[in-house]
Specification:
With about 400 residues, the chain is an alpha+beta fold. It folds into three domains: about 140 residues, Orthogonal Bundle (Globin-like); about 70 residues; about 170 residues, Heat Shock Protein 90 (2-Layer Sandwich), CATH 3.30.565.10. Helix content is about 60%, strand content about 10%. The strands form two sheets. The protein has a five-stranded mixed beta sheet. Bound molecules: adenosine-5'-diphosphate. The site of adenosine-5'-diphosphate has 20 residues, from helix 10 and helix 11.
């Protein structure tokens, strides 16, 4: 007897059993019956032709009917449904067919059902991969949109704040002129000093916001000129001397090979980057600590090391601190002072330093054994800068090239 003939004998009881087991109430029962009939008919075709492919369209339709919520809730798999179908088939074969016929039918069904599992698994895997790829793409688009709008906001806010700040600056100078001519000169100059400091700090913050949006938009333009690292460092030591004294710290800058050589860089920007790193070293080191600046000459590069005896940085934060606003999480630590111990700022200092150094073709990274306010493991910031012996810009190159013969017409 043909296998398909045996199967046809269990069609009705199987349909009855499987719809009962799969349906959850009356709703959808009619569709379920249609689908199960379709499955059984295709099973007969597969058995008669010896080609399990007959079942593929039914299985794919079932898999495709899963909704996004099913996929999200990991309810995508149809394996439990196939298990029930298989179980019901075996049950009905055992009940309605004699033993020898039942054995033949079940062994004939095994390869077909194996094929069904395989088809479902492959299809579901493709759907899942597609779903999560789309989800990742969406998250990544959303994140870049968010970053874009954050950066646009900083840029607009900074420019909008700059205008009133310039007005305040102008009017307060005029006010100072008028008031210092009166009897209360001393008191006024003390008050005005406070106002000027506030204006200066606000100006620095606004400029930082403008710089970070220039860096974000890859619009930071460098003015290459002859630069000496040791001169920049000397200037910074003089500038920060007052703060170092306030904190009873020592700031030592060692001479190192290459630091006295002329290179081409944007002096002001480089000074800004180094200032940010040095003020951090002072800020995150307790009173009485040390900051040591040293370096070495490498092939084509100069390395500057800024080492402090401060609180150090946890390994998981050593990359994050170079991202803008990385210190925002710790708002309670924010301080209006430039060098207060642990007085966190807006978290723009290191991202700006990184942006400036990368625009020069250099880099910056940090090494630290971790964060610990008791054992003070300290941090070492490494700054790598190309030893550019010629300015990248052609006009500048001509200006600074000693072998260059003047092209000016002779008198
Ligand atoms: P902030 O304005 O908060 O100082 P920065 O971008 O300059 O922003 O630094 C980001 C964060 O990196 C700081 O908030 C601080 O947590 C950490 N950090 C920077 N330099 C040091 C240092 N030398 N020692 C310990 N932590 C540091």
């Amino acid at each position: 007897m043909y296998l398909s003939e045996s199967l046809k004998k269990i069609r009705e009881p199987w349909l009855e059993g499987i719809t009962h087991r799969l349906s959850r109430g009356e709703t959808g029962r009619a569709t379920l019956v249609v689908e199960m009939e379709r499955f059984f008919d295709m099973l007969i075709q597969a058995v008669e032709s010896g080609d399990p492919g007959w079942l593929k369209p039914v299985l794919i339709d079932w898999a495709a009917s899963r909704t996004e919520t099913d996929i999200e809730n990991e309810e995508i798999t149809l394996s439990p449904v196939l298990n029930l179908i298989m179980d019901e088939l075996v049950d009905k074969v055992n009940h309605h067919l004699p033993d020898d016929e039942a054995v033949v039918v079940i062994s004939g069904l095994i390869p077909i059902l194996y094929y069904s599992y395989e088809q479902i698994a492959q299809h579901e895997m493709r759907v899942r991969v597609g779903y999560f790829t789309a989800l990742l793409e969406k998250v990544s688009t959303d994140l870049s949109r968010l970053d874009r709008s954050k950066s646009d906001f900083i840029s607009v806010a900074a420019h909008e704040l700059k205008t009133p700040l310039t007005l305040i600056e102008g009017y307060s100078s005029m006010l100072e002129d008028i008031l210092t001519k009166t009897d209360q000169g001393n008191q006024v100059s003390m008050l005005m000093d406070g106002i000027h400091k506030g204006i200066f700090r606000l100006g620095v913050m606004i400029n930082d916001m403008i710089d970070i949006s220039l860096i974000d938009n890859q619009m930071l333009s460098l003015k290459y000129q002859p630069t000496w690292i040791n001169r920049i460092l000397k200037g910074l030591v003089a500038e920060l001397d007052e703060f170092v004294d306030d904190r009873q710290q020592t700031l030592v800058v060692q001479d190192f090979p290459g630091s006295d050589e002329m290179i081409f860089a944007d002096t002001e920007r480089l000074e800004q980057a180094l200032r940010n790193v040095l003020t951090n070293a002072i800020k995150y080191t307790p009173d009485g600590g040390q900051v040591l600046v040293s370096g070495r000459l490498l092939s084509g590069f100069i390395e500057i090391r800024v080492e402090d005896s401060g609180i150090g940085i946890a390994p998981q934060d050593q990359l994050v601190i170079f991202e803008k606003f990385s210190s925002l999480g710790d708002v309670k630590l924010h301080s209006s002072s430039k060098i207060n111990f642990k007085g966190g700022g807006p978290g723009l200092g290191l991202p700006i330093a990184k942006g400036i150094l990368e625009a020069h073709g250099g880099s910056i990274w940090v090494e630290s054994d971790g964060y610990n306010e008791d054992t003070l493991p300290g941090s070492v910031f490494h700054i790598l800068l190309p030893m550019r012996k010629h300015p990248p810009d052609e006009q500048m190159a001509r200006l600074f090239d000693p072998s260059h013969k003047s092209t000016l017409p002779k008198e």
